[in-house]
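Thread: quick sanity check before group meeting

JM: Hey all, I'm pulling together slides for Thursday and realized we never actually wrote out the predicted structure for the chain we discussed last week. Dropping the sequence here so it's in one place. If anyone has concerns about the input, flag it before I start.
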Amino acid sequence: MAVGFGVDVSRLQPVTLVLSGEFDQAGVAELEETFRWVGARHGRSNVIIDVSALEFCDSAAWHAVERCCAQGATLQGSAPCLRRLFYLIRHAHLLPPDLHELRGLDRTSARHLLSEEARAA
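JM (edit): ok, ran it. Output follows.
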């Protein structure tokens, strides 16, 4: 049985958007609209996006989270589905330091690997 996507908004400062369920392209607009609304009222830098309750996240949804973070939001949490996604899209260097053993690299090695890929492209 599929679990729907949800965005719950805390009323505390900083405001936390708790993402839960299965986050895919269908939920992107909901996240972005909620982030714009909350950011306009509380300041974008006062918004935390908590991903720890996600059960699924595709690359389109992840890019929506990245766009929110680029506009000032802070990312919090580490759901297993994001660990798999980061590994697959070579963003594992974004994982918290205590999870780097999942890919066998430390933070320095990950940056070096990414810079080599960028030079090769």
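AS: nice. Residues 92-121 form one domain. The two ends are 41 Å apart (CA to CA).
JM: adding both to the slides.
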